[in-house]
Amino acid sequence: MEAAQNSPAAAGAAAYENAPSAVTVKLAVDAPEQMRALGRRLAAVLRPGDLVMLTGELGAGKTTLTRGLGEGLGVRGAVTSPTFVIVRVHPPLGDGPALVHVDAYRLGGGLDEMEDLDLDVSLPESVVVVEWGDGKVEELSEDRLQVFIDRAVGDTDDERRSVTLLGVGARWAGLRNESWAPWA
Questions:
Q1: How is residue 40 annotated by DSSP?
Q2: Minimal CA–CA distance to 161: which of 176, 147, 175, 151?
Q3: What one-character-per-residue DSSP string does 62-91 give?
Q4: For residues 48 and 122, what is the distance between their CA atoms, to the nearest angstrom?
Q5: pLDDT at 1
Q6: How many Å apart are CA 137 and CA 128, to the nearest integer?
């Protein structure tokens, strides 16, 4: 796979890789079902209060990963892109946390515009997943999981993705110790 080296995901991951409180895990994902399986696997380590930021180009697999998170968390409703409604809340079917799925693509401002969504109120009891949240939601939590997804660019049907999990803050200190493959 030839991913663009100057893609938003590659640039975002590189900006944090040498930060002292950051833990990085790099994975290869070969198909959409593997992306969903990775989401299910990630759900096993998530807990209420976690902020997950997803970065990647259109079609990279951000919503597919979030579908897997929803399956793994056991939430109600089909997880679909919240592009036109900005935020979707998926309540838990059992004792787990709700999934708050945000698409910040059309939101221009930083945290001020995000405050209207009351994410700070939802965060303590929920897992909040924000697509396109770079520069907009970092202030919600000093501990966050950033997921950078790179895909091949141009006229290709290549399904492979390079995924970088970047745990920022003490909450994610053990991220590298988790077993990430196989995901299915």
A1: H
A2: 151
A3: HHHHHHHHHHHHTBSS-----TTTSEEEE-
A4: 9
A5: 46
A6: 10
| pTM of the shown model | 0.84
CA 163 to chain centre: 10
What are 106's two structure tokens? 């059309």
pLDDT at 179 over 60: yes
Q: What is the dihedral of CA 73, 76, 79, 84, to 10 degrees?
A: -130
Burial tier of 69 (Cβ tally within 10 Å: 0-12, 13-18, 19+): buried
Question: Tokens 């109120």, residue?
Answer: 121
Burial class, 86, CB count within 10 angstroms (exposed 0-12 / middle 13-18 / buried 19+): middle
| Token pair 């049907």: residue | 157
Q: How confident is the model at residue 3 (pLDDT cuts 50, 70, 90)?
A: very low
Provide the token pair at 171: 């909450």
Check whether the bond before 32 is cis (ω within 30° of 0). Answer: no
